[in-house]
Amino acid sequence: MTTTLMTYAGPGDPEELATRTGGAPLAPAGTSWPACVTCEGPMQFLAQVVLNDLGRPTDQNDTQAGHVMAIFMCQNDPGMCDEWSATAGGNRALLFPASGLQPMTGPGEDDGLLRLGAVNAVNLVSFPGSDYGSAREEWGSRNGNGLRDVLGQLGGRADWLQDDETPGCLSCARPMDLVAQFEEGPDHVTAMNFGGGGAAFAFACGPCLQAAFLWQR
Questions:
Q1: In DSSP terms, which residues pair with 35 in a beta bridge?
Q2: Rounded to 5°, angle at Cα 210 from 2 and 199
Q3: 165-196, pLDDT tens digit by residue?
Q4: Who contacts 174 (Cβ-Cβ below 8 Å, separation ≥6)?
Q5: DSSP alpha helix (H) spans, the chain
Q6: What are residue 166's DSSP bridge partners?
Q7: Neighbouring C-beta atoms of residue 75, cutoff 10 Å
Q8: Is residue 127 within 8 Å of residue 139, measured between CB atoms?
Q9: Given Cys at both, which of 47, 67, 166, 192 links 21, Cβ 3.0 to 4.6 Å?
Q10: Residue 149's closest CA among 137, 162, 161, 158?
Q11: C-alpha 109: how far from its chain's center?
Q12: How many Å is the maximal CA-CA distance in the chain?
């Protein structure tokens, strides 16, 4: 088993069909921008993950892309909408077939507030073993690297900060598979808000085409 780190690769294309944080979410035409269940305001778009089939994340150079996951979280009043929970309605993880997608347009004049300040492109770096923490530390110790440039991991085993909160699929009740784990980001411009030093986890159930997202601190 290997651990596949996502590492910062500089500014990215805000509308590219690629695994990235920030930019514009790609979705089928007519897809509505997700709204928070609690405050009813539009959510902020965080990240996009490209999968060659469900449960197997890939990068932008893989021609076998089959689905795309788009991840959103409420930031209208941080901390007040239970946006860390996989079930409270303060975030959304959506799965789409990878063909025929187009950039989503946010509602109203506050479209700019619904996106991170910049786009992070990613490199994928593989390490033997399933220990994300050790792989992250090893990469960060290399000459010229820094821990803040690790954006997370694709697939693998969740490195929980608290108890295991693997969500069950709402359709079949089986535990979902980890698609990606995210760190907040390398700087305040691109950072995702996971409570300051937290980490987030995106899951999917391939057979049921269901997805979930949560974060811990």
A1: 42
A2: 50
A3: 999 999 999 999 999 999 999 998 889 999 99
A4: 168, 205
A5: 132-141
A6: none
A7: 22
A8: yes
A9: 47
A10: 137
A11: 25
A12: 47
